[in-house]
Amino acid sequence: DTFIQSPGVQWEFNRAAWSVVASGQKNFRARWEPWGDETPPCPSPGSCLADFDPGQKTYETYEFSVAKQVFLPLFQKLRFEAMWQTGSRLDRFSEFQFSFFGNRVRGFSGSGVRYDRGGIVRAQYAFNIANVIRFDASLDRARVRDALTSDDFHSFTGFGISGNMMGPWETVLQFDVGVALQSDFEPLRGGTEFQIGLLKYF
After folding, report:
1. Phi/psi of residue 142, nearest 5 degrees
2. How many Cα atoms are found within 13 Å in the side-chain-facing hemisphere of 71?
């Protein structure tokens, strides 16, 4: 384990329901000592002692995105987003990965997919009344590459719905479900993720 300091810069432009964001981070590891599997042949690319690079004590990540919102009648809106992520000197610990919070492709949170470069596009529909009654639907598609294992880009497509609704005794029920519709890796197809929460007002 080590501490990582990650100073960064971000630029954002918003106009007429358009949003453009560019950000970059320089990451400094406090310690970076040789590690990895010494057994030849190494069973897991990126986890081999032979792959250790002392130069990866520092690494950079960059992210660029553009998004457009379209407001519809009756508390509805559409949102379209395209994002590109890349970096330099990334290893298996610093690569990007799909997660439930933040860098999400529905259905693939916790799938273990890592990548050093790739793009994600999203199309979302939302119906929202004061964040009390809310329904969202999202279609996500990613095309990413993990240079530690291959020079090829791989595709992932997921669909998800989420929302809030009023429950009994002044509670709010929250739900979020995602399904992996398509993946170039067959074991990941059909994967499902979900979260259910109950909020109580006092």
Report:
1. -125, 145
2. 4
Rounded CA separation 181/176 (Å): 16
**For residue 52, which of 67, 26, 34, 64 has the smallest C-alpha distance?**
34
CB atoms within 10 A of CB 25: 17
- Using CB atoms within 10 Å of the CB of residue 16, give its burial: 0 to 12 exposed, 13 to 18 middle, 19+ buried: exposed
The whole-model pTM stands at: 0.88
Taking Cα atoms as reference points, which of 57, 59, 39 lies closest to residue 47? 39
109 by DSSP, 3-state: which?
coil
Q: What is the pLDDT of residues 138-191, one digit of tens each?
A: 999 999 999 988 899 999 999 999 999 888 888 889 999 999 999 999 999 999
CA dihedral (60, 107, 186, 52) in degrees, to 10, reads: 20
Find the angle CA(105)-CA(115)-CA(41) to the nearest 5 degrees.
130
In the block, tokens 């890592």 appear at 114
b/e sequence 114-145, b meaning 16+ C-beta within 10 Å: bbbbbbbebebbbeeeeeeebbbebebbbbbb
Helices (H), the chain: none
